[in-house]
Amino acid sequence: xxxxxxxxxxxxxxxxxxxxxxxxxxxxxxxxxxxxxxxxxxxxxxxxxxxxxxxxxxxxxxxxxxxxxxxxxxxxxxxxxxxxxxxxxxxxxxxxxxxxxxxxxxxxxxxxxxxxxxxxxxxxxxxxxxxxxxxxxxxxxxxxxxxxxxxxxxxxxxxxxxxxxxxxxxxxxxxxxxxxxxxxxxxxxxxxxxxxxxxxxxxxxxxxxxxxxxxxxxxxxxxxxxxxxxxxxxxxxxxxxxxxxxxxxxxxxxxxxxxxxxxxxxxxxxxxxxxxxxxxxxxxxxxxxxxxxxxxxxxxxxxxxxxxxxxxxxxxxxxxxxxxxxxxxxxxxxxxxxxxxxxxxxxxxxxxxxxxxxxxxxxxxxxxxxxxxxxxxxxxxxxxxxxxxxxxxxxxxxxxxxxxxxxxxxxxxxxxxxxxxxxxxxxxxxxxxxxxxxxxxxxxxxxxxxxxxxxxxxxxxxxxxxxxxxxxxxxxxxxxxxx
Length: 483
Ligand code: PFF
Hints:
This protein is mostly helical. The protein has one domain: Hydantoin permease, CATH 1.10.4160. The chain is built from 20 helices and no strands. The chain binds 4-fluoro-L-phenylalanine.
């Protein structure tokens, strides 16, 4: 079967940045920044992006581009007789599960967009907004319908293929996203009292930063750059050998980070200007911001623009999540793209229904003490995403080996890469250790041991695990070389 490729540099950048820039940037980044004290959190986040995010992104691009295969096929090609393909299966499954609930939140955004455009949202009294939001997400049918709309729109793009669907759509939507963001930023920073919000965002106060905040920054850097679930690997597999993937990874990382910061510049000056709290958590965009827009001149117009912005960001990300699964199904099961996309969409829709109902009728239906939405979120964010991430680091760093990754980054000598030592250290040691710390912390092992196990001790344990994995990796390499 002939594989599709991206057609232009700008198209690749728009698609990869479109994937990275999502609800994570415009919804989650501002609210976790708000909860963790603003600028100090941002500095830690930037360090995580450079030390962990960028090396992992480079590795994923290289693995995908080297093999021109889906996530499972890529590992199978590079280590045919070893069970490394399971790592691809972990990533594809993670993308599938994440999409099943990411589409629900995107559906809430679409619902707010339609309510805002029809003038309903702006008429809700600020003290009723919390109940209004609660009523929307707990109402059985409406969120299901909006989730379906999101999945169908996503499928409509994916079904057209990489060049005609994903690339064209990203090249069209990403400039619109940027223009809306700039318009909203200008609106926000010109409000009276906006400077308090800018100060909150850019003046570090380290006394607000906790260990939990640092871990959250690390986890979010991964989430925001779409790493650990084979998205970047799959997009990498549609990139031509001659492209400079280091430059591309740097561009995507910068774009993702800039857009998150710009979203902060839209949100915090406005929140402070109207005397509201920056730390309201996940409700920030659905509860706090509508109150801000209500108080603002031409608020209805800016509110609609804002939800359109998040809608665009969300859809370019759902497209990439779906592409991971569709690429896997088409190539591993030898199925046409159309049929694969329809089947994947139906399966996703079926899986999303219990999660949608978690906010209403099924809120008390629990497994392991969690409703479906929380359970899927927990399993992916805390277990399978870090697992996929560590496996990519170990595979790229120790099994396939940094020499091969660097060769691929350099396009066999075409684009000299002068950071190879730093990259190798980051991917072999820093990134897997960092991800393992998040993992151990988030699955609650820290609390479980309750022996005052410190982060330092965890680093040592993590280090030992990496060394064992490395030794095992070297041994298996030697064995396969001898064969
Ligand atoms: N990186 C995108 C975001 O920040 O919203 C999309 C995304 C992909 C989010 C994968 C989460 C995820 F696990």
